[in-house]
Amino acid sequence: VYDGLTTDTWQGNSEYIDGSTGAFTVTKTMVDNFARTTFYVSGTGGAYAADDGYEGTYFKPFATLKKAVAAVNQSNLDPGTGGFRIFIDGSLTEHDIIFSPASSRGENLRTLTISSIGSADVTIDANNAGRVFKVGQNAKLTLVKLIMQNGKSEERGGGIYVSPGASLTMTNCTVTGCQTTDSVGGGIFCEYESGTSTTLSM
Predict the structure, then answer these.
(1) How confident is the model at residue 104 (pLDDT cuts 50, 70, 90)?
(2) What DSSP element (H or E) covers 34?
(3) Which of 61, 177, 184, 185 is the most exposed place for a label (fewest CB within 10 A)?
């Protein structure tokens, strides 16, 4: 909802549009649902001051990606096709960000896209304190315009670990400077178990 936004008529098939007049009704439920399925995080260089005590909205963003992902993990509100979204403004120093919604939940509730809010890439630096991301079983995570660096783990997947049955899609992303003391998967490791399908798309 933008201050001063006006239009003559709205067109579409929605319970919020009056088919005879074209009037569009914005309800508190509509706004609340959007606010709880789309979250914002502001890091170093971000436009707005951030705090994990905020609501995670555009003007009151979370300070950490962990907080935003935790909100998605815990949410029972169906975000619709395409799942939840998190937008990042500014660089972050974080590690062990775990997207692991209950595997029994519907697909929409297990789907998340994390992306830069603008045209520039966003850096998430794990600072060699842990891996950057873990994708839980049956979760579907899409990463867009992110640079993930300096992840480190004693297990497989120094940068990103993808659990059995999970799906990871990366678009215009970079994983760099990540390592593991295990024998494989310094950057990204996709785990496999019999009877499951683990997917990596780049």
Answers:
(1) confident
(2) helix 28-35
(3) 184
